[in-house]
Amino acid sequence: MKQIYLGLAIHNHQPLGNFPWVFEEAYHQAYLPMIEALERHPAIRISMHYSGCLVDWLEQAHPDFFNRLIELVKRGQVEMMSGAYYEPILPSIPDADKLGQIARMNNFVNQRFGLKPAGMWLAERVWEPHLTKSLAEAGIEWTLVDDIAFRSVGLDDRELFGYYTTEEQGRDVKVFPISKQLRYSIPWHDVERVIEYLRKQASEEEVRIAILGDDGEKFGVWPKTYQHCWADRWIDRFFTAIENNQDWLRIIPLGEFTNRFPPRGRIYLPCASYDEMLEWSLPADKSWEFTNLKHQLVAEGRADVVRYLYSGLWRNFLVKYPEINRMHKKMLRVHHKVYQARALQKTNCGLEELWKAQCNCPYWHGVFGGIYLADIRASTYSHLVDAETKADKAIHQKCPWLEWQKIDFDNDGFEELIIDGNASSLYISPREGGSIFEWDIRSHSYNLLSALARRPEAYHRVLTEPRPESRAGESGVIPSIHDAITVKDQSISRFLAYDKYPRSSLLDHFLSPSTKLEDFASNSHRELGDFITQSYEALVKKKSGKVVVSLCRAGIVDGEDGVATIEVRKQIHLVEGQEKLEVHYQLKNLGGPPVQAAFGSEWNFNLLGGGHNEQAYYKMPVITLDDEHLDSWGELEGLKKIALGNRHLGIELEMMASPAITLWRFPVESVSNSEGGIERIYQSSCLLLLLPISLAAGEGVSLDLIWTVRTAPTTR
């Protein structure tokens, strides 16, 4: 009789920094219903993984959940999988952290469930060949990788119903291919159709197993899936169908399958993930072209060609989004500090916070918000700054302290300046307009400048061009989250705007006096100068507990009367032990016609001001604003003082200017995709501090800015 085994591996995870209500909603819509379904169907035996982020929340919010899960483990229904505890992309973190995070999860499974896990879940199923050795050293025997990687090295569909061994430096691990067919069928196709597919794959001649490895959130959290999976009982009907066909369809945990049956052979896989992730990692235009090409070939019935289309690499997110790269390099910098501190004190010295900051969620972007979610970015930086502060306390015996270094921080071949202190840290890019791209406030464990530039995305083409053909709408098919691109606001295309430069701070603009706030906000204005994307000369001096960074550039300003050479000098003053930043500008017309312009110093702050957050505010002396929210718009003249803050974060930032300036303020909002569809997402609050200038040859003007961090009031 023909038979086939079925292996189901379900991965459950929520990002660190996500809102508590999101965890709670996911619990009731997916995690709890799945446990209840397994209790109703004792013949169903699966492999399960819960990330440490979710474990920590469940232990606090629903401790009884694990008691029910323990019973399922005892009954042999659930095989617990390991993983790296806080769900990092394993190739992106140092080896010591790989081993440490896996050991942490192994210990949790052992202590809570009384067993040693043999298999593990790879975060976002990102695989690189060198992982084999690390996994083996961590005691891992098997894992899962998407079948596209197996196909890319020449395997046919019939060869994907089993596991293989792979090796690195003599250490081996077993790898299962995750079936894309099942991933796109469960729970989207009719139950009968899924069962019929499995029946067709059954064999009398060899032992076969079809493998699904996927997110638990697709069973209730993803759009429309709660109704489909639980109210319409898709999961119960699927489990019942498996139970009714046990004569030929045998469901089995993956670890048990490896114990009972041998591998199909040896294999060496390329760098891999699920194919959607690989497509998302491509540049926007190439991603659109590649996706269109694949859909076109599928529509033409050219599966023989599609199988060889393999493009993209997770690491390319570090190229596609410089903000991700800088966050990643910050993580590596903090890693080295933490391990240096541990060698001195033999304590964790921020290790836990470092591991939390390695959670994968803000390090990529696709159908899920990822790096575009300002709160997730802020949370990651918060853990990084916290870890760094704990490590620095062990490294530096004296307090207060302040130091600086010139280093290629982001590995782009150019040096940045880092000023580090017990009170705050400042990261400066002389090459990118002499800008500041990170300002960490140690007492609050917060990076004030975790902003993000608006840039083209492949899915923006959906707003203006026909979509590639997809299986959405096919008879008996519920559209997958990967197929169903929805638009929350049909007029959203009018909000598309792209930044021509990184959304850093201390950026120097020269604008025509006729430029409007709306033009500047949409980046449709004309820039008279060549300062925001060009290099500045940098000189650093340290004396008596103070670091002074002098940045200078002689550039051109193309005004109404012709081109003049303007010198911009700006000095940054940072004093040890102080959460204060002083900036002193000097502008001078070195030669050429008179310049009539508005000089603007641009600053971008992320104090979580999106969605009209009542806790995030602007505050002016004397003046009462019509709208005080951090995502409000406005123009104010003759301003010498302004404050912005977030009561929940406990941070208030005050700016004092001399002479008085004109302030433009607006929210930087991207048009971004998420599970719920394409929508506007707050990234930062932009403040442009404008000073009208009229400079004849040889004339100059100065502008002084003082930024001071304080504790925000708890009430208005």
Task: Note down, in words, how this protein is organized.
The structure is a single chain. The protein is built from 19 helices and 26 strands. With 716 residues, it is an alpha+beta fold. Among the domains are: 4-273, 7-stranded beta/alpha barrel (Alpha-Beta Barrel), CATH 3.20.110; 501-711, Beta-galactosidase, Chain A, domain 5 (Distorted Sandwich), CATH 2.70.98.10. Strands 16, 17, 18, 19, 20, 21, 22, 23, 24, 25 and 26 form an eleven-stranded antiparallel sheet that branches. Strands 1, 2, 3, 9 and 10 form a five-stranded parallel sheet that branches. Helix 4 links the parallel strand 4 (82-83) and strand 5. The longest helix has 24 residues, at 322-345. The radius of gyration is 28 Å and the shape is elongated. Residues 470-475 have low confidence and may be disordered.
Descriptors for this entry?
alpha+beta; 28% helix; elongated
The major pleated sheet works out as: 11 strands, antiparallel
Quickly count the helices. Answer: 19
The computed structural class is alpha+beta
Can you tell me the CATH topology of one domain?
7-stranded beta/alpha barrel
Determine Rg (CA atoms, Å). 28 Å
Distance between the termini: 74 Å
Mean pLDDT: 95
> What's the CATH C level of one domain?
Alpha Beta
- Residue fraction in strands: 25-35%
| Strand segment tally | 26
Helix content: 25-40%
Shape category: elongated
CATH architecture type of one domain? Alpha-Beta Barrel
Q: pLDDT below 50 for ≥5 consecutive residues: which ranges?
A: 470-475
